[in-house]
Amino acid sequence: xxxxxxxxxxxxxxxxxxxxxxxxxxxxxxxxxxxxxxxxxxxxxxxxxxxxxxxxxxxxxxxxxxxxxxxxxxxxxxxxxxxxxxx
Length: 87
Prior knowledge:
Largest sheet: none
Number of helices: 4
Shape: elongated
Strand content: under 5%
Order of helices and strands: HHHH
Number of strands: 0
Low-confidence stretches: 29-36
Structural class: mainly alpha
Helix content: 55-70%
Radius of gyration: 26 Å
């Protein structure tokens, strides 16, 4: 049977382990995701200087389609053809 000292020592060791795990998780959270990674973007950046003139015309039509159609219409494929052409 454990005495009080052993029990307290074991409990404090568990608390130290938990604190270490929390510190490791915090350090990992600071480095992930990398700043260049955008987890909420569906495609590459659409900045004009990154694409050809043909691609820029498709991107402009896609953005216009998104502006003209509701999210529900987009969900049911209103802009899918342009999105496929862009890829």
